[in-house]
Write a structure and sequence with these properties.
Two copies of one chain form a homodimer.
Chain A lengths: L1 E5 L9 H9 L3 E6 L8 H4 L8 E2 L11 E4 L13 H9 L3 E4 L9 H10 L3 E3 L20 E7 L6 H14 L4 E4 L3 H7 L13 H13 L4 E5 L10 H11 L3 E7 L4 E2 L2 E5 L3 H12 L6 E8 L5 H15 L3 E2 L8 H7 L1
Parallel strand pairs in A: 1-2, 1-4, 2-3, 4-5, 5-6, 7-9, 7-10, 8-9, 10-13, 13-14
Antiparallel strand pairs in A: 11-12
Helix pairs in contact in A: 1-6, 3-4, 7-8
Chain lengths: 338, 338
């Protein structure tokens, strides 16, 4: 799919979705839209990303595209009026427009009319399908290996870990796919459901449906986790994914040195071994799954301490560990999960 | 509040909400509407319920009421056209109409117009408020004792246990209230939120809001649980309530002799002691709470085996237990929770 990714005034640091699509997406990204850095190349800013031109608006893109992707998600998820011209232009050229905002594009009268007129589709990935139902407890029966990335908090790298495990498995020739459960993962993968937006009765059922469907086409599924099972606010989403996906193996993701829940600092994070045991205890009655590998985000540490943090996390879990971004997913980690 | 309760062709066995309102509600029920048993008295059918006349339609009710409550919830939660005359008549007389159906009364054009014309309110208790947000982790700070009924499955008597604990505490002079989280509980209590209808991101936040608000007015809160923490489909709702409510004590509810999850018979229910340990392990990192009492539904057993089932459950939990409907909430159970 040939796409342009909109990231005005945000690339790279505040454009998590755009960076994720460039790093992990199967899209053919022809241009990045950012009026602040227009004229540069993506690789000028993030060396390991594909070398894509940055332009000021869709008018500067000559290629024929399939879609424009809104690759920035401001706090609150509102649509920024300064994006309006590019979305309008995309629809006029017949391109689909894909976004993960709280404000749904399809609810915008002008966009809806333009989309209808030009045969384009407005895809709001945060909008759940309207035919969801409760889980039937069937995900454990699928004919695929199911790995699930879980965490000690939000923002511990569960999505990144999922895509890195997928890529390491693909390098070994395994037909692997991520089952995305959050808006960035869904935008990157180009399918999936944002589980925290599903009504709680149907959250496990939404995950079950994704796992059952994806298992038809792949041999290894890596289900992206959300939140944390002992998070004061998001544990329900976490639990729904764990029991809806019924995984075979868990990967525990942690930020090196973090001791309290982000934004909820009066709540301590249990030590990694206890946290792994809690996930395993919750998985067991529905479908037993052990924490077979660990992923540590060491981005706050220098090289030496980063290695130490990985080793210490592996010791605590009694399982192989890595920082998937810094050190890659090595054979020991991948072997443990397969 | 003076009310009539609609339970056409359903009283008493298929009218769980009507029976609950009659047994636990603070409403002054002036009449029950059931065209099948019209002319009888409620106590002809269920001896321990209040002696209320059963009539065929609202036309047979001469009292001036505040509301008509739809006290029957058919599978699927659809509005039955045969109820339309009574709802219409109630609105014409200026009464509010309260229902917990999936079909919202307020979305019915005729009802909405009649309600507006006669100054009546259509209350759809399954519709969540539109200003919900994520939990802030504050429920643990409230100035009230918080007890939470949890279960080994759906339909184990968690709502009944909550109201029975409330009533036993009230008899002792304690200002106690139930925090209702399901549609029947909400209909009975006349307030609350149906948590399984809340989007999963906000489920814990909805419970937190209810607990914080109710703690302003009461000394003991009994938070009604939903589902079960190891249920393949509903565990997310259960977890959201546990962490949103941040209780001080747990009551484990179980159906005597049940060994597999209802409707999910390939899933075994962990033994009661293990299940209690799992709830405690999940509560601990957010706010420690132990299972301090057990409630067994023994309705399928004769008197002797029922006593044995209660004793055996108490032994397994190492905590006092009872069947709250059959044997009442005794001092040992109540003392353990306070």
């Amino acid at each position: 799919m040939q796409v342009a990714v909109l990231a005005h005034e945000s690339f790279p640091d505040r454009a998590k979705t755009a960076v994720g699509i460039l790093r992990y997406g199967d899209h053919d990204v022809r241009a990045l839209l950012d009026r602040d850095t227009a004229g540069d190349r993506v690789s000028d800013h993030v060396p390991d990303l594909p070398d894509v031109p940055i332009v000021a608006s869709l008018d500067d893109v000559e290629d024929d595209l399939d879609a424009l992707i809104v690759g920035v998600a401001p706090i609150g998820g509102a649509f920024d009026p300064s994006w309006r011209d590019d979305v309008r232009r995309a629809l006029e050229r017949g391109y689909d427009v894909i976004a993960g905002l709280h404000d749904f594009l399809a609810d915008d009268e002008e966009f809806a009319a333009l989309a209808a007129e030009h045969g384009a589709e407005l895809q709001d990935v945060r909008r759940p399908p309207d035919d969801l139902s409760v889980s039937e407890g069937r995900a454990g029966d699928v004919d695929a290996r199911v790995v699930h990335t879980v965490g000690t908090d939000c923002s511990t790298g569960k999505m990144t870990a999922a895509f890195e495990v997928r890529d390491a498995a693909r390098e070994r020739g395994i037909d692997a796919a991520v089952v995305p459960t959050g808006q960035t993962g869904v935008m990157i993968a180009g399918w999936g459901m944002v589980v925290d937006r599903v009504i709680s009765d149907f959250a496990a059922g939404a995950v079950e449906r994704m796992v059952v469907d994806a298992a038809e086409d792949h041999d290894l599924l890596v289900v992206e986790g959300q939140g944390a099972i002992a998070h004061p606010a998001y544990s329900g989403v976490t639990t729904s994914i764990l029991h809806g996906a019924m995984p075979d193996a868990l990967v525990l993701c942690h930020v090196a040195g973090q001791e309290t829940v982000h934004g909820y600092e009066s709540f301590e994070i249990p030590d990694p071994a206890s946290y792994a045991t809690l996930y395993e205890a919750m998985a067991a009655p529905v479908r037993p799954a052990d924490v077979l590998a660990g992923m540590v985000n060491t981005s706050g540490l220098d090289e030496g301490p980063a290695h130490e943090a990985v080793e210490s996390f592996a010791d605590e879990l009694a399982a192989p560990a890595t920082d998937p971004v810094r050190f890659g997913v090595d054979d020991a980690v991948l072997d443990a999960l397969l």
